[in-house]
Specification:
The chain has 244 residues and is of the alpha+beta class. Helices cover 23% and strands 27% of the residues.
Amino acid sequence: MPAQAGTKRVRGVSIYRPFVYGTEAVPFDPSNKPPRTPPDHTHKWKVFVRGVNNDDITYWLKKVQFKLHETYPNSMRTIEAPPFEIEETGWGEFELVIKLFFVPESNEKPQTVYHGLKLHPYDGDIEAKKARREVIRSISYEEVLFNEPVELFYDILTGGGLRSKGKAGKQHRGVPTAEIPERITQANVYSREEESRELDRLGEAIKTVKQMVNEETEKMKVKEEELAEIKKSEPVLPPPQKKK
C-alpha cells in the first residue's frame, strides 16, 4: 500500500539544524528596583530559544513551551511566534524544561531539552562581576536531528519549500543551512572561529596531560628502582624453623 500524502519519508537521509537556548540574568539595583517587583526578587531574567546568530528557525520550529518553577503563576507557558522567549523576575536558580514543537509539515514529535537558570557568576572575578551587576549568560548550542524526514518537510529543510515575499512581490529566501557562522559576533560565539579556538585549546590540554603522565611515569620508575635497591641491601633472613 503506498504511503499517505505527506507521510512518505526520504530514506537514508538525516538533516540537522543548529540552534541555541539558554538564559540571561541581570541583578537589580537595590536602590532602583522596578515597581510591582516582589520584594524578595533579586534578578530580572530571560529564557530563550534562538537560531545561531539569530538566524530564522521558524521554517522548522512552530512553537516553544517553557516550564518554569511551580511557584510561578502559569508556570507552563507557550510561545507560538518569535522571539521564542520569556522574561521574568526571581531570586533562585532552578531547572527549566524547554519543549520544541515542529511545524505541521514535519510530522515529527516534540523534543525536550533542559537548562539550568543561572543568576550568579561562577568564574573569574566573582565579586567584581557582582559589583558591576554584569549580565549573567548561560547558553547552550544544540542541533536537532531530523532522521529520514517526510518528503514535504525535506523540501522545506533544503530550501525548495521556503517562500517569502520580496520587494517586487516575488517569493524568495536563501537556502537554509546547517553550517555555523564563520566568525564570532557580539551576539553569538558559536562559529567556526570559536570551534577552531576550542580545538586549539583541547590540543594544548592534551599535550599538558601527556607531559604530566610522562613526568609521573618517570617518578614511578625512580621509586621502583629505589625500592629494588633497598630490597637488595636488606639481609636475607633464614626461614623460620618449625617447632617440634
